[in-house]
TrEMBL record:
This is Homoserine dehydrogenase. L-homoserine binds at E190. Pathway: Amino-acid biosynthesis; L-methionine biosynthesis via de novo pathway; L-homoserine from L-aspartate: step 3/3; Amino-acid biosynthesis; L-threonine biosynthesis; L-threonine from L-aspartate: step 3/5. It comes from the Bacteria. GO terms for molecular function: homoserine dehydrogenase activity; NADP binding. Its EC number is 1.1.1.3. InterPro entries: ACT-like_dom_sf (IPR045865), ACT_dom (IPR002912), Asp/hSer_DH_NAD-bd (IPR005106), HDH (IPR016204), HDH_cat (IPR001342), HDH_CS (IPR019811), NAD(P)-bd_dom_sf (IPR036291). Belongs to the homoserine dehydrogenase family. Residues 353-430 form the ACT domain. It holds the Pfam family NAD_binding_3. Keywords: Amino-acid biosynthesis, Methionine biosynthesis, NADP, Oxidoreductase, Sodium, Threonine biosynthesis. NADP(+) binds at I9, G10, L11, G12, T13, V14, G15, S16.
Length: 430
């Protein structure tokens, strides 16, 4: 009676750390909750795979029914990843009255509302602290500590793999491929790292953060999402010469009656707190009307840090089981759809870093300047260097312009075959 049995789905980087933490920390959890946690069954894809540290009394199987049909198992922990079959698994577990803890942002960003409704119908808990920023307890902090404040902006570094790659490219001058390989080896990257490096993993996290911060569901299809796979060493060096560090940032802001969110490489001033976040660490800056700017920092990826967030959910569910208070939403904040509108691109304004390759011939710079001027934009910094005897590399930082002005510049440049726009990244200002 004093024991809570757990079913684990997945025994990879995160799953094996969850197992280790449950085994090693059950005494402390028992003193806090009055219940002893133990893992009874683990579902994996391949039981024949060599694994260390699975205790003899734990069943290892490929059959989810071993958890679904076991009345002793009260909490299921989904750490297998991906949307399918994870969605079907979690739905079946909730319908079998199992409380579910997951680290799966792909799943929560895509089907979180539907799964939360299924959990509520079954009087079950569904928690997912580990899905955003790994080891940083950001979701519960927003739910509890920002409950009464009006959040106006959430931004930050929410992908450990990208931040690790950019740090290695900046500090060790590693190649992109070398840094990605190391991030995979260290267990930070997803099994297919495309979502990491193309910004999609960060976008999933911004969808969840926006849901918690504004009570609004932003669709991935409404977000502009750009990753780091095309960033060149040259951009990193030029940004540094201008006094900036390139980071992959997720930004979501309230503008008038709407919320806009996007993900992309951003030039961050070298003395800004976000520029000092290195390797797999993440940082989330939450701005509230009352509190002002706050910053939450910690490891964004890796087995044990992520497992700590999973355990925080397991402990919360356990407390709810003990108190008989299960079946409430993890995030109760819902704004009415009329409060959240689409944002006019004219209202989203940033300074931009533009990197261009142009024919090194008279008149080219004038052509570029005319295009920028026609859009109503202007430069705050500009550097021109020769790349070879035929082309020049021009990098500029504009004054603040709207997204529609940027689109005008891009459109006009596409028509000029002697000038190529290589990169256009936002510039964060202090
Ligand atoms: N790694 C990290 O730093 C973080 C990861 N996450 C999230 O945690 C989750 C797990 O990530 P991670 O541990 O890195 O992933 P891994 O690839 O290391 O592990 C996945 C595990 O799930 C099992 N699995 C995969 N598909 C199935 C299936 N169809 N049926 C049964 N078992 C299956 C695999 O089995 P087998 O061992 O037999 O191959 C493996 O044990 C993901 O949602 C990820 O996004 C969240 C925060 C940080
Ligand atoms: N692959 C992700 C893992 C955590 O969510 C990352 O690198 O951040
Ligand atoms: Na978290």
């Amino acid at each position: 009676m004093n024991e809570i049995k757990i079913g684990l789905i997945g025994l990879g980087t995160v799953g094996s750390s969850v197992l280790k933490m449950i085994i090693e920390n059950s005494d402390k959890v028992q003193t806090i909750t009055g219940r002893r946690l133990s893992v009874k069954t683990i579902v994996v894809r391949n039981v024949a795979k060599h694994r260390r540290q699975v205790p003899k009394d734990v069943t290892l199987t490929t059959d989810l029914n071993a958890i679904i049909n076991d009345p002793e198992i009260k909490i299921a922990v989904e750490v297998m990843g991906g949307i399918h079959p994870a969605k079907e698994f979690v739905t079946a577990l909730l319908n079998a009255k199992k409380h579910v803890v997951t680290a799966n942002k792909d799943l929560i960003a895509s089907a979180g509302e539907e799964l939360a409704a299924t959990a509520k119908q079954n009087h079950c808990d569904l928690m997912y602290e580990a899905s955003v920023a790994g080891g940083i307890p950001i979701l519960r902090t927003i739910v509890n500590s920002f409950a009464a404040d009006y959040i106006t902006e959430v931004k930050g570094i929410v992908n450990g793999t990208c931040n690790f790659i950019l740090t290695q490219m900046q500090q060790q001058h590693w190649s992109y491929d070398q840094a990605l390989m190391k991030a995979q080896e260290l267990g930070f990257a997803e099994s297919d790292p495309t979502n990491d490096v193309e910004g999609i993993d960060s976008a999933y996290k911004m969808v969840i953060l926006s849901q918690f911060s504004y009570g609004a569901h932003i669709k991935l299809s409404n977000m502009s999402v750009e990753g780091i796979s095309t960033i060149q060493q040259d951009d990193i060096q030029r940004a540094a010469e201008f006094g900036y560090t390139i980071k992959l940032l997720g930004i979501s802001r309230r503008i008038d009656n709407g919320v806009f969110a996007e993900v992309g490489p951003v030039l961050v001033p070298q003395d800004h707190p976000l520029a000092t976040i290195h390797n797999e660490n993440n940082a989330v800056m939450v701005t509230g009307e009352a509190v002002g700017e706050t910053l939450f920092y910690g490891p964004g990826a890796g087995g044990l840090p992520t497992a700590n967030s999973v355990l925080s959910d397991i402990v919360s569910v356990t407390k709810n089981i003990v108190l008989g208070t299960t079946g409430h939403f993890f995030n109760n904040y819902q704004s009415s759809p009329s409060e959240i509108g689409n944002i006019d691109p004219k209202d989203v304004k940033y300074a931009y870093y533009l990197s261009l390759k142009m024919l090194d011939a008279p008149g080219q710079m004038l052509k570029f300047t005319q295009i920028v001027t026609q859009s109503g934009a202007s430069f705050s910094q500009i550097v021109q260097t020769k790349t070879d005897h035929q082309t020049a590399r021009v990098t500029v930082i504009t004054h603040k312009i709207s997204k529609s002005q940027l689109s005008d510049i891009k459109r006009a440049l596409r028509k000029v075959n002697t000038i190529a726009l290589l990169a256009a990244y936002k510039v964060l200002q202090q």
